[in-house]
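Class prep. Write one:
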Amino acid sequence: MHSPNLIAQRKEILSPKVVDLFFDGEGVWIPSRYKVMHGGRGGLKSWGFARVAIILATHHKCRFTCAREYQNSIAESVHETLVTNIDALDLRPYFTVRDTYIASNVTGSMFTFAGIKTEPRKFKSREGIDVLWLEEGEKVSEDSWRIIVPTVRKAFSEIWCGFNPDLPSDPTSIRFMPVSEEKPQEPHPMARVIATNWRDNPWLSPELIAEKDYMARVDPDSYQHVWEGDYRRHSQAQVLREKYSIQDFTAGGEGWDGPYFGGDWGFAQDPTAGVKCWIKERKLYIEHEAWAIGCDIDKTPELFDKLPDARKHVMRADSARPETISYMQRHGYSRMIAVKKWKGSVEDGVAHLRQYEQIIIHPRCRHTIEEAKLWSYKVDRVTGDVKPELVDANNHIWDAVRYALQTIIEAQPGIIEFYRLQAEKMKQKQGQ
């Protein structure tokens, strides 16, 4: 079996910036210890690395380790990204795809997946890595970089890193970002570095364009970070700062309260959002999300069907749109009800969310993760002080969460009793 000459097709299957990062004008591979792509969403960083890896794997025998700071399951890896691109290039016959690895049937190339901090000893013991592909490089700690560099030690081995810059003080930013006021030193001398954003993506989908334009309109600061790849501003203003984490989990069964469902309606070009969440041992778990910009009312039942079993349970939704609730009730969501609101209900909801020991978000809930990072208080333009006023943006999922938990929040200050009951459950479970 001979695989197709993908190098000859590089200009059709890669963006121009990615081509220039890896190949010279004649299609000859450019060796470099580090190949780095930074920038905002839609810049084809993951997609570009995946396709170049596939090209390399079909022409040479290589050992790829695809890693990130934490990886608790294969669902958190780039496994799906690789498979999606293998299929898009009609190359499935040339690869063996398994749950924990991907192999080339032609060259014997192998893709494996790892979390550096998840299993540091296992990662350090890996031998013969030709290419280490690091995803979400902005989250890679200095301790992890100290592990990475000596582990990837094979002659001519390379480290590929893609990241959306978060803070100038992040170790990955210090290594690879251009000179700035915050970082006077030069980027790593052995690195080829490019910035790539949505403008560099010839295949940008209408859905991504709609999301980009929406954020630019409602929250220009977040737009600059998410889409243009600028550093995040005002991290101290985050509503859920140091409160949430991203983990794979399976909900339901003994000790799980819920599920709780909530819905927030879009207006004009604003997103409609829905959520399915649970509570266990003073932790809030966000299991599923539904999110779409410009969702017509007749498409909303189908959108909310992305929340498993939503039609079977009570769903609390924004009372500002009674006609939408009535439509949903007539189209399969008979248990949907309008949420109660009161003076200070938003602030009470925020206080409730911050009283959980931790808010755990499933990795598939991409918009929930983004909003957790971007939902913020206003910041004084002159002094930089954080104000006790919420920015009305990046809050659609979290409005849906507040609605889902409305009866619990409404019980405040009875929330103390709620936590007491939760603590008693924990003690009973431990005593069994």
Confidence is low (pLDDT under 50) at residues 413-420. The chain has two domains: 10-200, 237-431.
